[in-house]
Amino acid sequence: MLSLDDARIRASFANVSVRERKNIVLPDPSTIDWEHVDYLGWRDPRLPLVGYVVAVVDDEPVGLVLRQTESSPRRRTLCSWCNDVTLPNDVVLFSARRGGAAGRRGDSKGTYICQRFECNDNVRKLPPAAYAGFDREAARQERIASLRERVATFIASVARD
Ligand SMILES: [Zn+2]
Q1: Which tens digit of pLDDT belongs to each residue from 85-141?
Q2: Distance, CA 91 to ligand 1 centroid (Å)?
Q3: What percent helix, strand, coil does the chain show, rounded to 5?
Q4: What sections of the chain are H helices per DSSP?
Q5: From the CA of 16, how far away is ligand 1's center (Å)?
Q6: Residue 74 in contact with residue 68, Cβ under 8 Å?
Q7: Sign for the pseudo-dihedral over CA of 111, 156, 18, 51
Q8: Average pLDDT of the residues of the chain
Q9: Where is the Elongation factor G-binding protein C-terminal treble-clef zinc-finger domain (predicted)?
Q10: How far is the CA of 80 from the centre of ligand 1 (A)?
């Protein structure tokens, strides 16, 4: 994804109050490999049930604050973003308050996502050959494109009324 500076990351959040926006602890930019992420996802160690995601939706960065709605992760649940069938990490149900008037009415939307937002790594693993002549690199590129699309679709559906 295109690289974003701190100000743009903070400004991108669609489902936060002014105070919440100010208090978001941003990730250390030196730890982000922009070329190898389709969305930015991080957690704040001081707020164990909160997660942050930012992706580019229609050429604009849009971020969401997510809340993990169950304390124990599910080991055998498919992440609805990366769809990794090898289940390499825990997946949890996150809930996102919707943006705008819907959010003020208390509407939210939930989805199962990799607990530590491992999706970017998962889709970049070269998949096993499904049959003779299987194009593993093409399959990987397809997974990357699908991840990008699923994240953008979810974020847009939550951020907009
Ligand atoms: Zn995932």
Answers
A1: 999 999 999 999 998 888 889 999 999 999 999 999 999 999 989 899 999 999 999
A2: 7
A3: 35, 25, 40
A4: 6-11, 18-23, 100-104, 119-124, 136-159
A5: 23
A6: no
A7: positive
A8: 93
A9: 9-158
A10: 7
